[in-house]
Amino acid sequence: MNALIFAVALLWVVVVALIVALFALARQVGVLFERIAPMGALVNDSGPQVGQASPLFQLPSLNGGQVSIGPRQGKATLVFFLSSTCPICKKLLPMLKSVRQSETAIDVVLASDSEEAKLRRFIASADLKDFAFVNSTELGLAYRVSRLPFAVLIGPDGVIRSKGLINSREQLESLFNAHELGVSSIQSYLDQPAALRG
């Protein structure tokens, strides 16, 4: 009888120890998640800053018509700088197509500065004929684009809402998240004390 009581007591001690270990593990997972929080678009300090007015451009699109970069009544503009030889750019094209179809309040403008014939072949092979596509060295210089792919989200008022180097779907989504949160970047949001994040 004493052995049975001892075995039950030992089982209860083991169960309590496992519950304590589970709570400790859950807390450590939370701490780990905060330390390796999702990385947003890699913001550079050159060029026009978030919160400043975007440079104004009126450019011809390779797919026909004119493209306005700057204030646009009721619509934000995502300017996505890419190259026909950039594998990451090509990997992100399906997401850009999805954004273009699902986000009616955002116009997606593709931008490059390459040989026009090469870009036209790229537009045909990647099925980008529905996008506004500008070929302008001046546009890239105005935003100080040094590496690709790079994106700039401009609000309807012509003010830059977010920008950065994009290497993944998550980083592209971080531009929209930063805009919705009213911060310059996801990193600046995560750097705020938890009380201010609300």
Account of the protein in words:
- Helices cover 45% and strands 18% of the residues.
- The chain is built from seven helices and seven strands, in the order H-E-E-E-H-E-H-E-H-E-E-H-H-H.
- It folds into two domains: 1-36; 57-197, Glutaredoxin.
- A five-stranded mixed beta sheet has the order 5-4-3-6-7. A two-stranded antiparallel ribbon has the order 1-2.
- A hairpin with a 5-residue loop joins strand 6 and strand 7.
- It is of the alpha/beta class and 198 residues long.
- It is elongated and about 90 Å long.
- The longest helix is centred in the first third of the chain and has 34 residues, at 2-35.
- It has helices spanning 2-35, 87-102, 116-125, 137-142, 169-181, 186-191, 194-197; strands at residues 57-60, 66-69, 76-81, 106-112, 132-135, 150-154, 160-165.
The ordered H/E elements are HEEEHEHEHEEHHH
CATH class of the largest domain: Alpha Beta
What is the name of the CATH superfamily of the largest domain?
A: Glutaredoxin
Number of strands: 7
| Integer count of domains | 2
Shape: elongated
User: How would you characterize the largest beta sheet?
Assistant: 5 strands, mixed
Extract low-pLDDT stretches.
none
What CATH architecture of the largest domain would you give?
A: 3-Layer(aba) Sandwich
**What fraction strand?**
15-25%
Order of strands, main sheet, comes to 5-4-3-6-7
* Gap between N and C termini: 57 Å
Radius of gyration: 24 Å
Structural class estimated from helices and strands: alpha/beta
Looking at CATH, which topology of the largest domain would you report? Glutaredoxin
Estimate the mean pLDDT confidence.
85
Helix content, binned percent? 40-55%
Number of helices: 7
